[in-house]
Batch of 4 targets.
Target 1
Amino acid sequence: MSYDDIQTACVIRYPYLWVREAQQGETEGRKERPVAVGVRVSRPGGDLLLLFAITTKQPEPARFACEIPPIEKRRAGLDPDLRLWVILDEYNTDVVGQSFYLEPDPPIGRFSKAFFLPLVRAFITRRKNLSGINRTR
């Protein structure tokens, strides 16, 4: 397998660390979960990934999140019978090739551009007010 398949809008499994967990002193994600690759940025020392958690827990109304439609769940390789949300008001960053957490496994699926790119654009406009966890060494 290759890290090359991990691109923007794909869904991979990753031990996501929630901001609230990091604020309590935790340093490791509690479980592997599906995450959406928000963007992959080329860098000489290893490509930077911006990762958004996917969850079954309905977010509070004040959160910046989006429920995933059934067709997108199927495209992304997610369970179409579960209600799922992409959480966009927090994120993890990691570096391909330097990560303790990324594996060169193929993505489980991919969101369509029509669904995902508007979410990334909305994230970019709000990014200064959002919280991220840097998972690089």
Target 2
Amino acid sequence: MAVVPGALVAAVLVAVPVMLVAVPAVPVPYAPTGAGVVVSPAEPASLPGLVDLVVRRLVLADAVAAAKFGGGGPISDPARERELLDSVAALSAGLGLDPEAGVRFFRAQIEASKVVQRGLHARWRAHPALRPRETPDLATEVRPRLDLLTPRLLRLLKQTAPDRGCRTRLALARRAAGTRARLDGLHRDALRLALAPVCWPAEGAKPEIE
């Protein structure tokens, strides 16, 4: 009888049960675009979404500043501001948002943008090495991107119903968004200004900057 070498001896198959480890579900991040997302008026998710879009608009102020710095244009543009606010009033009415609330909110966006532009212009004048290397076209490159955000901001503003917890939730959302976007002090100050009207008038007679 042939002797089977030990190396070829049939091994005993041990069935090892597979352990299924439950992995905590990763929360789906709020989509600032609102695509496919239905948010009720009191849904807190609308507030972080609004803050994220405000940050996105505020970051575009850098491109506005670069365009005006390179082109020599003034920071304030009353005609453009009036045109924007008239458009905001009309869009607000169409969305069922109080036009006064929409205009008040966008006035804050305009002023916040100016804060960034003035700060950057001062920085660039003091430190020429930090000046932007390119000058974007304000009319064809920057403003169309800003205009795309306008109706989306107004929709989220309408969904954000001020309540007793609004200021606390707003502060948390603002800090989180500022951290994600790595905003510097200039942009964080401007963000506070941009968000000042959001929780008004539910918690006071006028907007406050924390």
Target 3
Amino acid sequence: MLLGKTRKMGRKIEELSIGEKLTITEKMEDKDLLLYLGLTNDNNPLYIQHDYASKTVYEKPIVPPIMLSGVITSAISKYLPGPGSHITKQIITFPTPTYHYSVIEFTFVVKEIHINVNSVIINIIAQNEDDQIVVEGTFHVSPPLLED
């Protein structure tokens, strides 16, 4: 808890530039998956039960897509634009399933900046270690508004 401490704000819209990139890499670990399942009470056997998943087209357990979305929203909140920013719209697809222990590289690119409405559009592509696209998305983000 940060009582009495001032948190650093993310970057204002004027500090961002079209074409700016951020890349992060995450490994999809069982500990994170179990934490997610416990917090959400999501008991889909496709996410954790090997015997169940082996009978599906996926053949083994997959990572819930919302966990991948969480990595994206976390990176927006922490880095681009950073603390104080807010996602106002998202369009996201998951063309390839992500399996446990996959290493996923997320690339964020600022595509548009709309200063008049304090909005940036960030495109995201995430690929697994086999260069398959596992997430594609467009996020509309309102950078932090700082009072002068």
Target 4
Amino acid sequence: MSYLIAVLPDRIQAEEAYTSLEKAGISTDLLTIVGRGYKSADEFGFVDPAQQAKKQAKFMAMWLIPFGFAAGFTFNAIAHTNVFTWTGQFGNNILGGLLGAMGGSMGSVFVGGGVGLSQGSGDALPYRNRLQEGKYLVIVNGSKPTQNKATPILRQFNPETLQGYTEQF
């Protein structure tokens, strides 16, 4: 799937660009306006980076917490570390496992969440920021020839940015 996305400063220009594209013979099924009064970023499918970060952190926690527990338990069993003498050797091994699980949970939050925030959104975050500033996106969804036909029409409106994307599966 290929997209051509133009960022326009206000609703009037977005509507004029949409109308010009429609007059040029581009089907309205291929055209979308994203902004106030039209589709939202979520409705269009722009990924929310915070949501992606939470999802990535949960996924990593599913693996890191059990492995952290096993690693902490095993390390304590091999090293014979006695933090609390009243718990005995097995209790200290359990304590080491719990500390390892805590380390795994911290890793999932900091690494999983941080990676999700920094890389999970792609170009969606800049577009979301522009929408929050009150700008509008005119999106042409179609083949390369359709995008080539739409590009000069959209350039007439002096968009802030005009960028093409191709989704890879």
